[in-house]
């Protein structure tokens, strides 16, 4: 139970607080327009909503926790392959939600330096996702390979 709480806390601090804080800090002073604030609000609520839905689904159906850092298990991993709920949208709906949230932050900040942070984060996560997919193939075999054929990696219908 303690490992699960640590996993959730680390995920919250890293993805919801720290990365956006760094994006904001490198941006300097900002004066967003109303349209930027509205776009941020929509993307933040939708993105965090998708991420939370994915985490709850992972706990209830997958019987695990999302915090896994480059094949280092921070909290117990899922024991069931998830292909329904938010995992019907894409194979990484938590990451989709985080990307939506960060896109909202980028629109709010409208700054190249914040964009560089976003791109760097996306590159790091692309490596993490590839490693995770290898592990999932090893654990779930043909079931996971079939799921991969039917479902995009991060962006529904695109990638």
Question: Based on helices, strands and strand pairing, what is the structural class?
Answer: mainly alpha
Largest sheet: 2 strands, antiparallel
Q: Judging from the principal axes of the Cα atoms, what is the shape? A: globular
Strand order of the largest sheet: 1-2
- From N to C, what is the helix and strand string? HHEEHH
Q: DSSP strand (E) fraction?
A: under 5%
How many discrete structural domains?
Answer: 1
Fraction of residues in H or I helices: 55-70%
Write down the overall mean pLDDT.
Answer: 90
- Number of discrete helical segments: 4
- Rg calc: 16 Å
Secondary structure tally: strands: 2
The first-to-last residue Cα distance is 34 Å
Unreliable runs: none
How would you explain this protein's 3D organization?
The protein has 159 residues and is mainly α. It has one domain. Helix content is 70%, strand content 3%. The protein is built from 4 helices and 2 strands; from the N terminus they run H-H-E-E-H-H. The protein has helices at residues 2-27, 34-62, 93-109, 112-150; strands spanning 68-69, 72-73. A two-stranded antiparallel sheet has the order 1-2. The longest helix has 39 residues, at 112-150. The radius of gyration is 16 Å and the shape is globular. The mean pLDDT is 90.
């Amino acid at each position: 139970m303690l490992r699960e709480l640590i996993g959730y806390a680390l995920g919250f601090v890293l993805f919801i607080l720290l990365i956006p804080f760094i994006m904001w800090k490198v941006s300097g002073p900002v004066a967003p327009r109303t349209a930027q604030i509205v776009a941020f609000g929509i993307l933040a609520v939708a993105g965090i909503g998708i991420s939370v839905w994915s985490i709850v689904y992972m706990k209830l159906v997958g019987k695990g926790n999302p915090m896994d850092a480059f094949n280092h298990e921070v909290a117990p991993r899922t024991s069931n392959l998830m292909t329904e709920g938010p995992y019907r949208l894409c194979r990484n709906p938590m990451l989709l939600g985080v990307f939506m949230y960060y896109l909202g932050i980028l629109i709010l900040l409208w700054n190249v330096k914040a964009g560089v942070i976003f791109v760097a984060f996306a590159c790091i996560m692309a490596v993490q996702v590839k490693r995770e997919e290898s592990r999932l193939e090893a654990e779930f075999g043909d079931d996971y390979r079939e799921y991969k054929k039917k479902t995009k990696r991060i962006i529904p219908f695109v990638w």
